[in-house]
Batch of 4 targets.
Target 1
Amino acid sequence: MKIKCPHCGSESFKVHQRNGHECNTIYRCQDCLRCFSGRRFTPYADTKLKPEKIVSVIQHLCEGNSVRSTERLLRVHRGTVLSMLALAGEHAQSVTDEYVRKLRPKYVQFDELWTFVHTKEAHLRRRDPAEWGDAYTWVALDSQTKLIISHLVGKRDAASANEFIADYASRIGGIHQATSDGFKPYIDAIETYFGADINFAQLVKVYGSPKEAPPDWYGPAEVINAIPTPIIGEPDEAHISTSHVERSNLNFRMHLRRFTRLVNAFSKKLDNLKAAVALYVAWYNFCRVHRTLRVTPAMEAGLTDHVWSVEELLNVGANASNKQAA
Ligand SMILES: [Zn+2]
């Protein structure tokens, strides 16, 4: 979040007073000479709680605690937890936009994770808001570094596919190989943003009832076959796979379920789900040590040289602005 004078909008200001934690810095506007707190430009705004407490709440959520247990352990009201989540999510997205770019991946896998906002799609009524119902989190994962290069929360349709691939394309360079599932709108989107400069394949899954199932089988469909289908360029058959993104998404799914419960328990808005996903993605990339890599995906991808704490994740933008201002 960019700091500017809340009284006159000026972007020229100086540090007037430092009060312990970075977010409590007071600035003085060079144009109207009035003072203001830097706190409103950080994930620590909107509450009088101490920064340490806010960090602790976000940490609990990122590490998979339920809202109920976070509320109980830290004695913070649920409404406050949710407003912290919204600010932290917005901040996390700005961190992703600043750091996760200019990448040169070799093998990338796409996937979409299902969740819902407010009401499940099947129970929607005609006059319900358009943002209710199915919501999909689109994820692009670098197979080698396990970095989530790009994500988008939207529907599972052509418009979302387009927006997702546009964002993905803006963060990477160089010819590489990508695999998606058999969802058709990927093809147009990939052609639009990469032309022929990519090796792109789809893993088309064939669903059916299990072979040993009784003839009166009513259970969920299973994947009975996955057909590697080259679409653009010459994708290496051995790397036409979505197994890494699917495995990595198991954890994500678990967090997402909690986020969905959190979102649906309160304001039931798509924006809250977006905030939760943005926070999870930044935490996954920068703070969580990957079990097989032994470092964070961001370190493996060369975006940073150390494991970030949740506090560092929440402070990173504020620090940069403060450095500029000092
Ligand atoms: Zn001013």
Target 2
Amino acid sequence: MKDKRVVIIGAGAAGYFTAIRLKELNPQVDVLIVEKTGKTLAKVRISGGGRCNVTHDCKKVSDLLLHYPRGKSFLKKIFHDWSVQHTVDWFESNGVPLKTEGDGRMFPESDSSETIAQLLEWKAKKLGVGLRTNASVVTIVKLPSEGAYRWQINFNTGSSEMATDVVLAVGGFSKESQYNIISHLGVAIVPPVPSLFTFNIPDATLHALHGVSVQDAKVKLVGYPESYTGPLLVTHWGLSGPAVLKTSAWAARWMNEKAYCTTALVSWLNLSEDGMREMLRDVLAANPKKRIDNLTLEGIPRRLWDYILKRAETPLTKMAADLSKFEFNKLIENLCRMPFDTDGRTMFKEEFVTAGGIDLEQVNPKTMEIKQVPGLYATGEVLDIDGVTGGFNFQAAWATAATAARALAN
Ligand SMILES: Cc1cc2nc3c(=O)[nH]c(=O)nc-3n(C[C@H](O)[C@H](O)[C@H](O)COP(=O)(O)OP(=O)(O)OC[C@H]3O[C@@H](n4cnc5c(N)ncnc54)[C@H](O)[C@@H]3O)c2cc1C
């Protein structure tokens, strides 16, 4: 067989990092990235609101894995071999130190995704990685085993490239049919559905509260077993914020089956019902002569309190001491389990990931090679792996890329 020639399809985070790590480990390998558009690292550039949330300050692998609705057990060994610390050290040793925000998200100190994109581009060029843009791969053909190359990669332009090994780093697609360059090789695809979205809620009085947020809410979808906690934000179209995004990621497939028409129950303070009763009772007892609409509940903004009172049909002019048992219970119900009917979804700051992709059963986690198709590897979002927001999706891209590179370098 000829010297190793690796063609990486896709010039995103996973494609670039596979190429760079491969050249770092074995400079002799001929590496070429091919990209269908005229732009490289397009998602890196727009990621994290233009700041690129590179990874998450989660040093323990067991904790890190808890943030992946899909791919958790597959990623275990991969994260032991390429942890968050490896990511931090790699960027730092290449002159891009990362900083950690209060919630654990890690960004370049420059606060600019351009720093990350430029580093990857500069590093790949310096290491001699080839790049071919405006080259959309239409088919990947397996060649007879006696030849010098195992693969012929055909482009929409009619031209082709030969390779000993191919890495699929094509990212996620919204439709199953878009995976045809992979599926025609017999690689099974888990049907894609969107993850990381906000809930559309057709309620004009809720929309009027846009911008109001609470720091620790709980969201539970009726009929879905789990609930998710975190900050919650009211938007012009419904509900958003980490508690909603987490729910959308974990329940991505379930909500898709329901055509995004579900009922979300919101606990505004994420307290147990007993805890909420105690808190409300204390506030009422401390302010017996205050009108109910003038009370302050810690953690509930004023405008939201008015909305909760309206939803609970509490007479606003009543004094705290005069609240009936029925009214008290209705308020508790709306503080602990306020129902919202969802009707569709909206992207969160255009950030989204695909749940679904290459079935992990077919991939060797030690090498990222497709078990049934020797010489074909996959890294990044094309795999049926996705994380919640916070830098977890890039961490999976760096780690799967590093794993493939290690295998290809040998
Ligand atoms: C707006 C936005 C913000 C985000 N912010 C963050 C963040 O801050 N932190 C985080 O962890 N995650 C973030 N994500 C998710 C993260 O960007 C992705 O998970 C990650 O970029 C996936 O990298 P990838 O290389 O696997 O795929 P991609 O970045 O999608 O790259 C795939 C590349 O393959 C090319 N390609 C596809 N098909 C072909 C073909 N047939 N021939 C040739 N080339 C092809 C595509 O054009 C593309 O350039 C964000 C996502 C979005 C959309």
Target 3
Amino acid sequence: MDEGFTLWFTGLSGAGKSTLANLAAEELRRRSHRVEILDGDEVRMNLSKGLGFSKEDRDTNIRRIGYVCNLLARNGVIAISAAISPYRDVRDEIRRNHRRFFEVYMKCSIEKLSERDVKGLYRKALAGEIKNFTGISDPYEEPLSPELVIDSGLERVEDSLQKLIGTLEAMKYIRNGAGR
Ligand SMILES: Nc1ncnc2c1ncn2[C@@H]1O[C@H](COP(=O)(O)OP(=O)(O)OP(=O)(O)O)[C@@H](O)[C@H]1O
Ligand SMILES: [Mg+2]
């Protein structure tokens, strides 16, 4: 029987959470897994509409995502979270509530992220125009023992995807897809 779990991405804005989450979802669906993505940006427009970026609101947002992921995961779905989730204690609390949890730290330097500046936010944050911007004017606590670290400043997207799927197979979160 297919077993659900939560695939939890964490990392700074622009580190590649949404990009890799979407590619992983595509590959997992191709292998007949049921998959749902809870993307930070989308969640903030519905499930967490009205919440801001204080520590309290961020924690509430992440706890809600964790709660929904757990409901999905225990019903055989691979639930993917792609939200910054800056605080270690809340991530670890969510991990403790899960039976199967796989955390991916999307690591990338601020220099590289500012260069990339996908949403134009680093330029503003570095100019002091955005309060509570994670990594610049708000904390980010790196995971201490994530199941996987992806250095998106160094790796190509396709290599990161292969590494992720390979690790999920090796750690028996999913069946080996070779030869299918
Ligand atoms: N190895 C990699 N993995 C993922 N993304 C990468 C990688 N290398 C380069 N990129 C690029 O980095 C950017 C990541 O943007 P993305 O929107 O996925 O970030 P995010 O972590 O979801 O940010 P946010 O928290 O603001 O939503 C994309 O333009 C992507 O193509
Ligand atoms: Mg994103």
Target 4
Amino acid sequence: MSKALHNDLPFRFGTVGTPLSAPKNGGSAGGAQRIRELSLDALELAWVQSVRVSDEACVRIREAAATNDVALSVHASYFINLNAATEEMWQAGRERLLTACRAGAKAGATDIIFHPGSYMKMEPVVAWRIARDRLAEVSETLVREKVAVTLRPETMGKQAMLGTLEECIAWSREIENVLPCVDFAHLHARPGDGSFNTYDEFAGALRLIAAGLGDRGLRAMHIHFSGIEYTAKGEKRHLNLDKADVDYKALFQALADFGAGGRVMSETPNMEEGAIVMRNAYQRARTRARKP
Ligand SMILES: [Zn+2]
């Protein structure tokens, strides 16, 4: 029997964190197996508080993911700020990011997702440059250590946070082994006025990615998605798709029309149910895809 379990779609689909329906004490290895049972094919390890994973656990996760043809990524600590005010605070965040990369690579993860940080009330371009220099040093350190991962700064849903789509693309253009994690729910929440929720706006974002990062950028996307509640300042909390205003059918139509590919990771409260809704919407969109 063939081991090629992957669905052959340009996108893999999965959850950020172990699916709710996975056995309670199976850990991330059990999560990878559950992802496959659900006919999904990607899992993001939610190492968002701290990394407490042994080398043995990394081997178990890697083997379970390989056996089940599940692509792995890591969501690194929430406590990383590329624009941290003091060198001491930056060094603590840097160590958290490097730890996620080193352990993630051992576990078989190819992509490390993280929140780039806060403007700390600075001019955005000044904060962006500080973040660029620090991220470049992290990337160089990983190359020197032969830790082969892609660093993925995430687009953020609050206006006070670093991480517009433009900023994430600009880091990716300047630094080796960096590509955006495009959270479309955050991009919708960020302006706070309900905008960024139409086919044309989603298509505009994909054009921006293609212009900045080429076809490679479009074909190797890492997407976070969910419904989302927001205020005038941006993101409030994630919602299930059927409880939210986000026009996910238009999003998947744009992704299909542009020939985008990579991974779509559900961050809805109902996790795997959301991932399945997303995959089904994408498959329907593919049958109607036309050149944009
Ligand atoms: Zn995130």
